[in-house]
Amino acid sequence: MNRLITLYTASLLLLFTGKAGAQTITKPSCKQTEIIRVENVKTGGQIYSLTAEQKTVILEYADGQSRRIQTVTQKGSPLQKDIVQPVAFDQYGLQPVTYLPYVSTSSDGSYQAGALNAQSSYYANGSSDKVADDNKPYTRIQYENSPLTRLLTEGSPGEGYQPGQHARSVTYRTNTLAEGVRIWKEDGSSPSVYSAGQLSVTESTDESGNITLQFKNKEGQEVLRRRQADETVNGVTETFYDIYYIYNAAGNVRYTLPPKAVSQMKGSGSWQLTAALLSDLVYSYTYDGQGRLSEKKAPGGAPVYIIYDPLDRPLLVQDGNLRAQNKWRYSKYDSRQRIISEGIYTDATRTTPAAMQSYVNTQDFSTAYCEERQGGTAFGYSNQQFPTSGTQPLLYYYYDNYDLNNDGTADYSYQAQSLAGEAAPLYRVRGQLTAFRKRIMGTETWLTSVTFYDKRGNAIQELSNNQLQASMSDTKTTVHDFTGNVLKAKTIKSHATGSTTILSTLSYDPAGRLKSIDDSYNGAAAIRVASYEYNELGQLTDKKLHSTNGGSTYLQSVDYRYNIRGSLISINNSSLTADERNDETNDVFGMEMLYEQADAGLGNSVSYTGMITAVKWKSRDPSGGTPKERSYRFAYDKLYRLKEALYQERVPGGSWTANGAYDEKNIRYDQNGNILTLQRNAYIAGSVTMIDNLAYSYSGNRLENLSDGGSSALGYRNLTGSASVYSYDAAGNLTGDPKKGLSQTYNELGRTEKITITTATGRYIRYTYDGSGTLIKKQQYDGNTLQKTTDYIESFVYENGTLSYFAMAEGRVRNTGSSLKAEYMIRDYQGNVRVSFEEQNGQAAVRQENSYYPYGLVMPGGTLPTQPNKNLYNGGSEWQNDYGDLPDYYQTFYRMYDAAVGRFMGMDPLADYYAYQSPYQYGGNNPVMYNDPLGDKQAPLDETLEGGWGRYGGTITFTEGGGMQTTLFRNEGDVWDAMKSYMDGFQAWGKNGANDEYTAAKEFASNMNEVKSGSMTFREKDGSYFLFSNTAKTDVATGTAIRGGVELVQYGLIPEDPIAANSAGPVYDGAGYFGSNFIGPGPDVDPGSLGLRPKDMIDRAAFYHDRAYFHAKASGISGALFNHSPAVAMADKILYTEALRVSRLYKEGGHIDPVTQLPISQYTYSEANAIIGAFGTISFFKTPLSTAQQRINNWYNNLLGGW
Predict the structure, then answer these.
(1) Is the pLDDT of residue 97 over 80?
(2) Do 410 and 403 touch, CB atoms closer than 8 A?
(3) Which residue in 456, 483, 481 sits closest to 35, CA to CA?
(4) Is 857 helix (H, G, I), strand (E, B) or coil?
(5) Of 1160, 1201, 1156, whose CA–CA distance to 292 is shortest?
(6) What is the DSSP string of 88-136?
(7) What are phi and psi of 925, to 5 degrees?
(8) Sign of the C-alpha dihedral, residues 472, 474, 478, 484?
(9) What kind and span of H or E run contains 975?
(10) Whose CA is closest to 537, among 78, 972, 73?
(11) CA angle 873, 876, 881 (to 5 degrees)
């Protein structure tokens, strides 16, 4: 059994001298945690004899106030040296300096008395260790000199980033009359402004001096967010852009007014929400008598209606497109409130939401509130829950067993693959999702997938069919080690005339960092796809690609280097020469990113906000010629939107030439970030030509017309010469592009169903999806005759029924007709594919090279090989260029993106989270720092560099108003402590709706899905402990079985690997998607007076936690760590217990969140795990260690009684 052993060392702790809090440490106390990584360890003697490969040892040293002053991960570095995280307090118990961890010369886990000096020396020891050097490897913080100890100034690691240099600062005050903050009524009118002193104001200034103002009323509701812009639109200059929040009497947000709406009212002098504003520019929300959200409307789209059953479960949802067809999306539930079926319901009688809700209210749910497993039916479920007729099921989910048709016997069984270490399946799987069925849209064909688990809850096999093979002959089998690492993976994918088999073997270092991947295709000799090397902090520094001799030689070596904040600064280098950043001279691609560094030759401006100010790159192309070094230097406005990207190039040994050959410039935006103008150059026939001179016009946020003064057929192309306007459907999707000559239709799920080339006869593309909205087929027609069919079966792509290629960890494998050949892809810092190569005569031969304008248009001049790679920009989105580069879109999961115009063709499905900007914008209008691979949320660099393969994790990047701070953490508890301190200091907790001040929480929640190695600790009722972990891409808790009688007690103890990625730049208002009001330490006001509604069930628990903190006069990090009052301790315990419950319910699946009236979300689950990590760790430091063990025993007993 996997066990967690915690040992306490009792010793003389401190001698106090001088002021309270000053301390001399003679011998700190120690809590030692040993995480067992191998099976069959049952005795103390066995534990003692385990090696570093077999266990992880973490020692937490505390002072006399039980504060953690140092954490040592014994032998945690790749060379098995100790990783030390020092902590220091001032005389007031605050941490004015946060230190980066360092690697000690020792390996025995001992306390490092001179840790601060050793840490300083570590970051000044030269570049040979491939760790960034800096004389300020810490973050300095300045607090308010008052009992509130509010944060005033915070720097970031590194020289030039400290207070007094370039740092973020906060001031606190009340409003003035001159600020003119409008008072809004629920009816959308604003007759007056707030008088002076009626609002609290938090004024945040970033490293560049840009200001954000947050205004809150006496109820704690944020009524206005004001951000410095200094922009001129249509001849009107505005210093600030405003976003207002209007509340109803119950405290719910009724309207959100984006900056463009506010500017229009300001310009007209009429502060009244007109019908036009409500239709085109305002977010509106309507609630029923029970406070449930019954209608929501995004600007430019028709309302979305939500119908509930008497149990407050969302039953029906209808958007504008479904309404035109009298259709609704429905969900059905089982007795455990898990969704078991989803589909389309048609009702031509009840055509209004009121009529439908009334009709649902009359249904008898007393005996038919759920579906039951039932034999003799088509899908193994009864059909008794409304709606029972007029339905077209799209999805079915099955839980608890493998008897899908409920006839008493399992319908599917595990298919053994004779793999070494292959686990036996466990058929007692109550609570697990065991199978699902998905209809192929528009057909009566269903796809089925069945998942088998081992005794530890690891998913060990997926058995499925596909659209080319109806039989259940596809398998994906994995072998795990004791900690959850995947050691082997065997995939068999079948089609009508054969199958393809892939066998992958993975190896790890003692800390769980991935070392190598070996692949064998169809039984051929294995190739080493990649090996990975790390510096002593665990950052990826070298990725070696393709070896056929067990790793003796490779075709390519990709080197990575980082600055002191963890930002990626180079991939090889931009000259493709050997230096301290790059080890080889035969590289096919290299790139360097500049932030606060000035390159005199480029003339870039420096930035201390995390913005990339210039990139330099060089790519080898298939011709084998001598490539030029190329560069862009970037300029941004005060909202960190891209204004221009100026191109330069140079030959080897030469100087930079600013010829503007591929400039993308004169980019201007309206208040919501809709692009107004854009110019683009290209190098054509020996001269620089302006290929695009675009002028955009809008109706609200919808692009209405677009004119081009450019003189080339490249770039944006008005192929028809039409002056007609664009057209849209009721959901805000583009349906007609008269310039390209395109028309589009959409299916019931809102996915593009058909794109027609209107300038030709019978020329169109038809897209087919399964019931979950996943693309599975594309068919190209010309003259109404089918020309080509492309099938997408997970990572396998077939053309006209024949395998074309499939994805592998570092690129793809092509079917050349005679063999399967690996093609490797090297990506830039955003995950955009720059160069692909394959082996030819023992060398790396470049197949394809692509360079991009910032908004994603492929630079002209390159040639495409046979079987070209079309998964290019935006983290590998597929370029749709089937008919002479038409339709010229990038396809994401949710919507299409047009790189020529820099906009999506449909509305953002998460538009509410980005209410301050256009629902059609791409990457926050900052494509240098963000992209949007799924088409739903802008992703910072540390998410997109991974390219979906999930190899890295561990560094957390906090960003605020354009700033950034990257810190390496050893465990989730450390992350949470730092996050709370950060959020507290910037008053970032009390906002209705997501916004940039949730960034720290967002980054933490996001990183929970990226940690390379993590764990969950459980306690049996008999008092014994054990620990499960999972090192896959998913959350460390996913796949871990919580057995009956077992309680989750602690989260995240295994040291993590620093992420091999670049830090994010600014996250704008709305970019955070954590979405909670009360998660975090108690506020300075009673949360009951805020008028805020909890965002989810864990946020509701946090509300009561915060109220208890307020009445106990506890707040902030100090209250969370050091307040010993019974009220605070009880509040912590209640919140912790609820987090445990949420985690359990989410893992069971199908449970409804009573606050959102939707299934418990991944975000809620992440919130719960964050709380578990926080209060499962910091609670130890609220009580002297001599009583800690008794206290936690009592705690556990109370918890067990609550489940």
Answers:
(1) yes
(2) yes
(3) 483
(4) coil
(5) 1156
(6) ---TTS--SEEEPPEE-S--S----TTHHHHHHHHTTS-STTS----S-
(7) 60, 25
(8) negative
(9) helix 972-985
(10) 78
(11) 65
Question: Which of 141, 152, 74 has its CA nearest to residue 110?
Answer: 74
If you search the block for the tokens 């992958």, which residue do you land on?
A: 504
Give the number of other Cβ atoms within 10 Å of residue 342's Cβ. Answer: 17
Q: Return the number of other C-beta atoms located less than 10 Å from residue 598's C-beta.
A: 13
C-alpha atoms less than 13 angstroms from C-alpha of 1080 in its C-beta half-sphere: 31
d(CA 344, CA 391): 6
Q: Three-class SS of residue 1076?
A: coil
Q: What is the pLDDT of residues 309-368, one digit of tens each?
A: 998 899 999 999 999 999 999 999 999 889 999 999 999 999 999 999 999 999 988 888
Return the SS3 of 683.
strand
Q: What is the DSSP string of 192-220?
A: EEPPTTSSEEEEEE-TT--EEEEEE-TTS
- Residue 234, classified by CB atoms within 10 Å of its CB into exposed (0-12), middle (13-18) or buried (19+), is exposed
Phi/psi of residue 659, nearest 5 degrees: -90, -5
> How many residues make up the chain in this entry?
1203
List the structure tokens of 71.
């954490």
Give the residue with greater pLDDT, 1182 vs 221.
221
Report the DSSP beta bridge partners of residue 734: 728
Of 664, 611, 613, 646, the C-alpha closest to 210 is 611
In percent, how much of the chain has pLDDT > 90? Answer: 71
Q: List, in order, residues 6 or more apart from 364 with CB less than 8 Å away.
A: none
* Contact yes or no for 597/615 (Cβ under 8 A): no
DSSP β-ladder status, 734-737 and 930-931: unpaired
Q: Is residue 907 predicted with pLDDT exceeding 90?
A: yes
Residue of 1093, 1066, 1057, 1058 lying closest to 1078 (CA atoms) = 1093
Q: How far apart are CA 687 and CA 93, in angstroms?
A: 65
**What is the distance between the alpha carbons of residues 852 and 848, in angstroms, rounded to a whole number?**
13
pLDDT tens readout for residues 728-764: 999 999 999 999 999 999 999 999 999 999 999 999 9
- Decide if 885 contacts 892 (C-beta within 8 A): no
- Cβ distance 405 to 380 under 8 Å? yes
The CA distances from residue 142 to 83, 90, 173, 602, 986, in Å, are 27, 12, 18, 36, 12
Q: How far apart are CA 257 and CA 277, in angstroms?
A: 9
Decide: 492 and 474 in contact? Cβ < 8 Å.
yes
What's the whole-model pTM score? Answer: 0.81
DSSP character for 338? -
CA–CA separation, 1001 and 980 (whole Å): 9
Chain position carrying tokens 């693309």: 775
What does the block give as tokens for 339? 């969704």
Rounded to whole angstroms, the Cα distance separating 1074 from 1005 reads 7
Rounded Cα distance, 341 and 330, in Å: 8
Backbone angles phi, psi at 686, to 5 degrees: 85, 5
Nearest to 64 by CA among 1197, 1185, 1199, 943: 1185
Band (1176; pLDDT cuts 50, 70, 90)? low
pLDDT, residue 1163, reads 63
Q: Which residue in the block uniquely carries the two structure tokens 């069930």?
A: 1097
CB 567 within 8 A of CB 132: no
13-22, 1037-1046, 1089-1098, 1146-1155: range with lowest mean pLDDT: 1037-1046
CA distance 338 to 1146: 10
Coil, strand or helix at 265: helix
Q: Give the pairing type, strands 702-708 and 727-728.
A: unpaired
pLDDT of 928 higher than 60: yes
**Beta carbons of 827 and 838 less than 8 angstroms apart:** no
What are the sequence ranges of the domains in the chain?
A: 168-297, 1078-1182
